[in-house]
Amino acid sequence: MKISARNQLRGRIVEIVKGATTSHVRLDVNGSIITSAVTNEAVADLDLKVGQFAYAIIKASSVMIGVED
Q: What domain count does the chain have?
């Protein structure tokens, strides 16, 4: 797999929660959980399964930080 995004985090799928059209895929990356919303079709096409290794690929034009008052 070659892609241009540089933020690639490898982890293990720990949960897949399917909705009507979208699934939430939870990935454990060194103890931190990253959740991605992807279509049910993408889950099927990629044959995603709990326990499988996968990559969270993050492409964003900005990242914001917030704090409580």
A: 1
